[in-house]
Amino acid sequence: MEIETEFSSKNVDILAFGNNVPGITSLSQIPKGKYKSIQLILDSDQGKAEINGESFGFQLSTGTCIEIKAQFEVLTGLTSILKINFDLSQLQYLISGNSFTLPNQIAALTKSTFDLPYTPGILILKLRNPIKDFESKKVGIKEIDLILEKHSFLGILPFVSEETNVDSETAELIGLDRTYFLLFESKVDLLQVNFALANQPEIEWVTTNTKAVTDTVPSDPEANTGCFFCNKFQTAYLTAINAYNGWNITTGSPGVKIAVIDTGIDDTHPDLVGKIIQNRSFEPAICYHFGIFPYECVTHSAVSRPLFNGANGWDHGTHVAGTIGATTNNGVGIAGITWLNPIISISVFYPTPSNKPTSSDRLVAYGILEAVNVGAKVINLSLGGDAYEYCQWACFVRVFTYSLSRDAVRYADMKRVTIVASSGNDGKRISAYPGTAEYTGVYPASYSEVISVGNLDSSLSFTKKLGSSNYGKVDISAPGTSIISTSTNGNYVFKTGTSMAAPMVSGLAALILSVDSNYHPKDVLKAICSKATPLTQTGNPDTDREYFGCGRINIGATLTALVPPPLRPNIISDCGAIDQIHCPAGRWFLPWDFQFVASGGTPPYNWTYEGGGLPTNSWLDSNSG
Q1: Contact criterion met (CB below 8 Å) for 93 and 51
Q2: Which residues are within 8 A (CB) of 202 and not within 5 positions of it... i.e. 6 or more apart?
Q3: Beta pairing, strands 471-472 & 429-430
């Protein structure tokens, strides 16, 4: 047996195990170099192990020191988590302490869980002024160029190009025209270069191309492809968010498009046929500078369909799309939150060596700009990653990640596009941008321009936060536990996570814009919050606000508030009403008629009567009165 435990530290260095396997572990003030072993000193020699839901105490037989032998190299500093596996087959039970003894020499690093949190060979740079005379190897600022020359610098590429196709006026206002990619040989220690550039006065910011992942907890093991079973589960959350009453107001509009920036969408699914606009994808490729030096560039595919037939989480985008807009009233599968809004598929994920989907700051930024360019009014981002704040010299020099996607978000916001993102599934408190020393952000959810969504627990009738759902910078909550939706190969599966809650909010945002397309993104959130269902879990309003935002989405109440009731007409001939004369009754077998007359209000009128009845063989014409 194995147990995985976590040790957190704010003084963390990158380790390169062997030649090819990078890792991250806790090292404070250790000189750069190559090492054969590492010793970890724990705060305590005792702990707990949870196995199949049961908790057991254990202690290390040789105190608080754990030695791990491996070939590794210390590179530089980050903040992250170390994961170590212990072989539990050698646990020895101690009657005296009612606990288990765990020999520390059997601890081993789980190398497969380690990876660099950024793309080697690339830094992203934003200058205070654009480069005037653009050359392939010089910025044109002496102090910056001298630093680059010392670190195997290859060249510069602009972020905005002809293929990016952005609105130049808005891009200039945001500063996208002053943003560049700096290319280095893959062996270069990027953080050291980053630190050297960070405090240069002509640089607004410079950072690494940080990786991002989908925000899904593993699929529910009781996934079911049968529609009878799935309908029961969908009814529960549709009722909780008052979707049925909302659909009496609007079921959406073909003119309001929703972009799903994700792992791609399987548009051959029976519940998605005709609903998906396939757009180009963004993925990394290997390019060669001067035909010699390899670096990671961005390439495009014509469509954004999932890779690997949905395995390893590649059905994530298809699941999100089904929640937003699966075809409704087709007698198949599930109903989408919106019925008529087109969904644009934009893939920004590529496979890791184990074929799991991963993305990066720059790919997400390109995806956001693309969504704006192709006319999306709502963008769903069920993805994200922790921000890293790289520190040097006791944090005198700081480098913040995810700066590029922030500018892309600002660009979309200025183009009046509503952005919805999942808050993450780490069960931790997250801060708004730029975060704090104690609580970092999760991006893009932590940006002020983004609607951050928390996950409600199905086992508690969607009235409480699921334990894994992040809290803090959460604007609104929605059901995200055991959500049935479309998958690849025509299947339906359950998934759990804030990734599943975010598309419900995106769907509601699209319905709001279908009623009135002039709503600004801030007005969209205001409309959602004004009629959200209040929730409480702790009894403390401030804590509950961090858990749920302004509450659980209420589609019916939100849309009803957007559409004022029709003005009541003035009924001129109002016989039979309270305090009015009786209506003429007519005689047996003799024809008779009475005409009601109304003015004002909102024609056409629909005439009905309340209580009482009409003479035999008489009726009220509902159209003419």
Answers
A1: no
A2: 127, 128, 129, 141, 143, 144
A3: parallel
Please identify which residue in the block is written with the tokens 């959500």: 483
In terms of average pLDDT, the best of 29-33, 229-233, 422-426 is: 422-426
Q: How distant, in Å, are the alpha carbons of 63, 210, 225, 310 from that of 326?
A: 57, 33, 15, 18
Residues 300 and 101: their CA atoms lie apart, in Å, by: 54
Distance from C-alpha of 379 to C-alpha of 419, rounded to nearest angstrom: 5
The residue type at 487:
S
Q: Can you tell me the distance from the alpha carbon of 80 to that of 185, in angstroms, rounded to the nearest whole number?
A: 25
Q: In this structure, what token pair is assigned to residue 428?
A: 């931790």
Backbone angles phi, psi at 308, to 5 degrees: 60, 30
Query: What does the alpha-carbon distance between residue 158 and residue 178 come to, in Å, rounded to a whole number?
Result: 8
Radius of gyration over alpha carbons of the chain, in Å? 30
Contacts of 52 (CB under 8 A, 6+ apart): none
pLDDT (tens digit, 9 = 90+) per residue, 572-612? 777 766 667 777 766 666 777 777 888 887 777 788 776 66
Residue-level pLDDT at 460: 85
DSSP state of 186: T
pLDDT reported for residue 6: 42
**Looking at residue 236, what is its pLDDT?**
87
- Please say whether the beta carbons of 293 and 269 come within 8 A: no
User: How far is the C-alpha of 336 from the C-alpha of 326, rounded, in Å?
Assistant: 4
Segment 82-87 shows an average pLDDT of 51
Helix (DSSP H) and strand (DSSP E) numbers for the chain? 12, 34
Joined together, the tokens standing for residue 360 give 């990066």
Cis peptide before 534 (omega within 30 of 0): no
Cα angle at 34 between 29 and 40, to 5 degrees?
50
420 is written with which tokens?
A: 């919805």
Residue 286 pLDDT exceeds 60:
yes
Question: Measuring CA to CA, which residue among 319, 334, 335, 362 is closest to residue 500?
Answer: 319
